[in-house]
Write a structure and sequence with these properties.
Layout (H helix, E strand, L loop, with lengths): L3 E9 L4 E9 L7 E3 L25 H23 L19 E2 L16 H4 L2 H14 L5 H19 L7 H12 L5 E4 L4 H9 L3 E6 L17 E9 L4 E5 L9 E4 H7 L18 E4 L7
Antiparallel strand pairs: 1-2, 2-3, 4-7, 5-10, 6-7, 6-10, 7-8, 8-9
Length: about 300
Amino acid sequence: MAAFGVLIFNGKLTDNHTKFLIIVPVDQKKLASIIDNENEENNGENSDFYGSVLSLKTGTRTVYKKFFEYLNKINNSIKETMTDGNPDTNPDTNPEPTEIRDTFYDVPFTTQSPLGAWGDPRQQDGCEEAVSLMAIKWVWGENLALEEAEKEILSISEYEKSVYGIYRDTGAEDTMNWIIKDYFQYQNVELQRNITVDDVKLELSKGNLVILPVNGRVLENQYFLKPAPLYHMILVVGYNIQNQAFQAHDPGTQYGKNFVYSESNLEKALQDYYSGYHESITNTEQNMIIVKPYDNHE
């Protein structure tokens, strides 16, 4: 049976006095219960949780964001207690794989212009927003309707413009920090620099998704309008050893779901870029964003 940790919030979480007793398993996959809510009158409008009992299946995404932040803190606290500050006392019994294997992950797909409004600059340059949205939907195990996708892509763009001053052509590091970590409040992501396609295969074998900045004019995709995008991002969702090919969600075309790119072609196309509207590419860095599933928190 999984060990359980207990955390009690007692005092002012918001403008009102609220107390929670939360019991969760160490692996964070299931919520045992949330009880003893002394502030039910406001229905959670000003608190971090709402209702006296909340399950993962019924919570809204806003709740998820705060909720998982607390679970992660609880889990880290429990791990420190169990190991007495020495991780060697509890060695990892499930080490990450070091061999490449066939992979494919079922990930919701959207183009960067879900309803075909390609004339909108926010969507015309919305590949970074689209791949981040698809990855997050995979993390939460949620579907993605076209109307919702368009609304989210526009919302992300407006958020970036409001907070950071730009929304077009965000490089890998800024895409990770501004969109995934900041807008979506999801922290289980990592930037890896100076990669090869072998690094992409390995991360897929570990159970992760990979977001790649690429030169779209090098990608062999017959559906791109000419000229193809020089600054582009794709979401890699699988790899086939026998065919030596990757499957990727390419938001730059309506035919981009599980699009197959050969290993050699993707290797040539790897190219990060500076954030800003069509900034000159003076470096040749090959970087990737690793998106890990929620239950793979370290």
